Amino acid sequence: MLKFLIFCSFFIGYSLSGSDKQKEGSMMNSFAPLLTGINHVNLAVGDMDVSFSFYKDVMGFTPLCRSEGSAYFLVGKPNTPGCLWFSLDLDREKKRQPSPCNSHMAFSISPENFETMKERLIKAGVRSFKDNTSPGESFYFLDPDGHKLEIHTGDWRSRLKFRKQDPGKWKNVVWYNTPEE
Question: Are 152 and 104 in contact (CB under 8 A)?
Answer without folding.
Answer: no
